[in-house]
Structure formats: structure tokens, C-alpha cells
Specification:
This protein is an alpha/beta fold. It folds into 2 domains: about 100 residues, Up-down Bundle (Four Helix Bundle (Hemerythrin (Met), subunit A)), CATH 1.20.120; about 190 residues, Rossmann fold, CATH 3.40.50.10470. It has 12 helices and 10 strands. The protein has a 7-stranded mixed beta sheet with strand order 3-2-1-4-7-9-10, sandwiched between helices. A 3-stranded antiparallel beta sheet has the order 5-6-8, covered by helices on one side. The relative contact order is 0.12. The structure holds ribulose-1,5-diphosphate (RUB). The site of ribulose-1,5-diphosphate (RUB) has 18 residues, from α2, α6 and β6. The site of ribulose-1,5-diphosphate has 18 residues, from α2, α6 and β6.
């Protein structure tokens, strides 16, 4: 698929969910590298940089996107020739896709261990990683009931109930605002993540923080299923995750909004759940408490404190 087409499909959410966005982006970069008409290495690098920026500008919150783009673009600076650079992009992209799919499978195995026979699980949005855990627990013969939210305004819950129904899992579909009233029936909350900060805060679909708060009040455990590339290295520098604000027209039809003089429609697409409301984060490397998020950033994303210190020096120089 063409690069601009992929970017547009991510922007309009035809391709959505942090893992799928990351895989689509690296595949688009590899396709672009194959066809990029560059006369020399410098031109190739700058063409690829522009392509990376087009993809990065599509949606700001899911950190899987910059992490995946970084993984594919990193070898470009070390390449000595144009064929080597082209080849490196293709190899890195293929490796990312393979390891991403493998990570979801590992998360399913590990996450399923934390789901017990007889559990009533609440999930929110449509997360490949969270669903993988639930589907695997069901496949292992555990008797589950799932509550799935609607997920206004884009109704990702419709995708979730379809997947649960296809698997033959007993499912109740609820509107987002019904969460607190049914929380006393829920024995486990399982959600995905778009980003996890160094202090273990989880950025996920709007409404997740409210669900985690209700779960905390009811003493129900909250499990987050997230591949290591959802962890945000730059939060070590104190950078905040940008919360995407989407079009008001997704929330209220324009013909109604137009008649309201004093009303502003807001549409934040994600929110932040503090670490204290998260019990466990299941990654492909194992399950960790949110307090250990830094170890994932250091050990598995390959960013260490020296990298950050160097980055800080560079940032200061650029500001001067
Ligand atoms: O919040 C969303 C999707 O938001 P949107 O629909 O706005 O992209 C998902 O919970 C995470 O991306 C994790 O999904 P996955 O586990 O599939 O990566």
C-alpha cells in the first residue's frame, strides 16, 4: 500500500489500535523504501525521513508508532550505501512485524494465566492484546463472562463484541456510563494501552481512567496488556504523552453543533490512568507491576539513562 494511503487510513482510523498502527506504519515505510527513486544515500535518507514524518503526524498518542518508526529508521544512519540502506529498512520492518505478532501471542499466554475460571471480565475499547488474553483463557477452557463497553464516539466496542461472539464467549454489551453500576459483578478488568510512561501511568482509550477508578473503589484488579513497544522512552525526560483531540463532529452532528452558540464540543480520544489504579502490566517479556515500567524502557527498548542525558544535552544545544 502507498505511504500516503496508509497515513490517511491511520488518520481516519480505518487502521486503528496501537499495535496495528505500528505494523501498518513499518510496512508502509518498507514499501516506500523499495520504490523511493533516490540517486544517492543522502537523498534516500532525506526521502525516508520525510516519509517517517508523514506517518508520525497521523495520530499523536500511540507511542507504538514512533517506537516502530524509530526501529526501522535507526540503521539508516549507519548504512554505507544505498542498497544497504534499502535492505536494512526492509529487514527491520519485517523483523518488527514478526516480533509484534509474536509479542501478542506471548501476551495472550501470560495474560491468560491471570484470568481465572469463572471470572467476569470487563474490557474497554478494542485492544488486540487485551482480547488475545481473554480469547486464550477461553480457549484453555476457562468459563468466562465478558462485559464490553460501547466506546463512544467511534464504537470500537462493536468490533470487540463481534470477536467475542465469534469465539462463543458469553458477553454483555453496555454503554460506557454503565461501568460503575455493574462493577460489583466484575472480577477482573483487562484493557490495552496506547502508551505507558516511565512511572507506570497507562494512556488508553478515553474512559479507561474512569473504569480503573471504579475498579479501584470496588477492589477489582486492573490488568493492562501491552507490548514493550507501547512503553514511552521519552517520558524519562519528563515529556508528556500528547492526548489526541479528534473532531467534534465525531461527538455531535455539525448541524446540531451549528445551532449552539455557547457550546464547545470536546473530543479527547485518550486518557491517563495513574499507576496506583493499575495492578499488573502484561508484556511479552513477562508481567510486571506498573512501578517497573522503567526496566522495560531500559532493557527492552534499549534506551538507557546515558542516552537520555545525551539527548538532553542535544535538546539544550538546539534551544541555544
Ligand atoms: O485505545 C485503544 C485504541 O484506540 P483507537 O481505536 O482510537 O486507535 C486500544 O486500547 C489500544 O490502542 C491498544 O490496542 P492494541 O492492543 O490493539 O494495540
Amino acid at each position: 500500500m502507498l505511504l500516503n494511503e496508509t497515513a490517511e487510513r491511520i488518520r481516519t482510523m480505518e487502521i486503528r489500535g496501537a499495535g496495528r498502527i505500528a505494523r501498518a506504519a513499518v510496512e508502509a515505510l518498507a514499501g516506500y523504501a523499495d520504490t523511493l527513486d533516490a540517486t544517492d544515500l543522502a537523498a534516500f535518507r532525506s526521502g525516508m525521513q520525510e516519509a517517517a514524518e508523514t506517518l508520525l503526524a497521523t495520530r499523536p498518542t500511540a507511542v507504538s508508532l514512533p517506537n516502530a518508526v524509530h526501529a526501522v529508521m535507526a540503521p539508516l544512519s549507519a548504512a554505507d550505501s544505498l542498497p544497504e540502506a534499502r535492505d536494512a529498512v526492509r529487514r527491520r520492518a519485517d523483523a518488527f512485524v514478526t516480533s509484534s505478532l509474536h509479542a501478542v501471542e506471548r501476551i495472550a499466554d501470560i495474560g491468560a494465566r491471570h484470568i481465572s475460571d469463572g471470572d467476569t471480565v470487563l474490557t474497554h475499547c478494542n485492544s488486540e492484546a487485551a482480547l488475545a488474553c481473554i480469547l486464550e483463557a477461553h480457549r484453555q477452557g476457562k468459563d468466562l463472562t465478558v462485559y464490553a463497553t460501547e466506546v463512544r464516539p467511534r464504537n470500537q466496542g462493536h468490533l470487540t463484541i463481534r470477536a467475542l461472539d465469534d469465539a462463543g464467549i458469553r458477553t454483555s454489551f453496555i454503554i460506557d456510563s454503565a461501568v460503575r453500576s455493574i462493577m460489583n459483578r466484575i472480577t477482573l478488568v483487562v484493557v490495552g494501552a496506547d502508551a505507558i510512561t516511565v512511572n507506570g501511568a497507562v494512556v488508553n482509550k478515553i474512559g479507561t481512567a474512569q473504569i480503573a477508578l471504579a475498579a479501584h473503589e470496588a477492589r477489582t484488579n486492573v490488568v493492562v496488556a501491552a507490548e514493550t513497544y507501547k512503553f514511552a522512552p521519552r517520558t524519562v525526560l519528563g515529556e508528556l504523552i500528547e492526548i489526541e483531540e479528534r473532531s467534534p463532529a465525531e461527538v455531535l452532528p455539525e448541524e446540531i453543533a451549528r445551532t449552539l452558540k455557547h457550546v464547545t464540543v470536546r473530543n479527547p480520544a485518550f486518557d491517563v490512568t495513574p499507576a496506583e489504579y493499575v495492578d499488573l502490566i502484561v508484556t511479552e517479556k513477562g508481567a510486571i507491576p506498573p512501578e517497573l515500567a522503567y526496566t522495560i524502557i531500559r532493557e527492552y527498548l534499549g534506551w538507557n539513562i546515558e542516552d537520555f542525558q545525551r539527548q538532553l544535552v542535544l535538546d539544550h544545544r538546539n534551544q541555544d
